[in-house]
Write the structure tokens for this entry.
Amino acid sequence: MPTITNDRHDKHSAPTIRAYLGGSFDPVHSGHVQMAMTVYHCLLPIATLQQRDLRVSLLPNARSPFKTHSTDPAHRLAMLKLATRNTPLQINELELWQTPPVYTIDSVRTLRQRYPNDCLIFIMGIDSARSLDQWKDGLRLTDYVNLWIFSRHGMNSVSDVYNDVRADNLVEENLTKQETAALQAQLPTPLQNLVIDAPTELLLPPSQTLADSSALKNAYKGHIYIDNRPVMAISSTELRQQLQSTTNRSNTTAPAETQTTFVTPINAIISNTTSNPFVKWLNPAVYHYIIAHQLYSAAQFR
Ligand SMILES: Nc1ncnc2c1ncn2[C@@H]1O[C@H](COP(=O)(O)OP(=O)(O)OP(=O)(O)O)[C@@H](O)[C@H]1O
Ligand SMILES: O=C(O)c1ccc[n+]([C@@H]2O[C@H](COP(=O)([O-])O)[C@@H](O)[C@H]2O)c1
């Protein structure tokens, strides 16, 4: 079945499909979960049909090479666990406990060595994809994995193009093609010709020309799928900023209470029913965890 967690690899079974959403998750928000679940739901029917295991994982890093600070990994991991409860999503701790900065190229090399024959997919937003030429060996990620890229509304993304095209009254199919083309044009030039039309192409067996003796050359890699389905327009940065003012307010009204909540058991956090002003963007249990642990308050906010 698609979500079996046994990592044993049987060389006679169909290659497992492994998708990873890398991020800081500081904190994890509904946009992250939406992206990972979109990939999961898109691939599940194919995985089921082909009797292949499907694993979609969130891959939290110790600290992004582009960032100078991240919240304690233990807190970010706890929030990820809360956000993925009752979902088929998994959490991969490969990057989390390393000494930062952690580079994605090193992780995908490790994953490819670990799973030479599997279909590996790295998920990211277009803002990340646009900057791949500034990552360590970012243009070489596709030597090891496929990429699945989501548009990102509200971040100078395809939304402006979308509105312009709408005004032209074009049919839906053309809208989609133009959106995809607009996103493709934002990729670093060497990656633009790796874009394929459908996610199913990521799962096609490697072509005969690649099927030589090298395990790496046999791997599913080297393609990019651009998914222009909208993802909730939210960022962890915005949430941290909003939470700062909220937690500051609660800190001034109930200091004793917030101090004692630091040891609140996780069950109490999960069953906490007090209102969550961020319900659209934050899993309620994640919100209560943040409040209980005084995360993103003025003292910790950067
Ligand atoms: N709302 C979103 N829409 C599309 N992609 C997103 C969205 N939120 C995050 N991503 C993508 O998810 C990956 C992990 O993101 P990350 O954990 O850095 O979250 P973030 O919201 O971008 O955080 P921050 O604001 O701290 O940079 C990145 O590739 C990012 O582009
Ligand atoms: O490897 C790199 O050079 C690199 C540079 C910037 C970001 N990344 C990865 O991109 C993902 C999103 O990063 P960020 O900066 O949005 O938190 C996360 O998995 C980072 O490890 C990786």
Q: What stands out?
A: The chain has twelve helices and seven strands. The beta strands are 17-23, 54-60, 90-91, 119-125, 146-150, 195-196, 224-227. Residues 1-9, 156-170, 208-218, 251-263 have pLDDT under 50 and may be disordered.
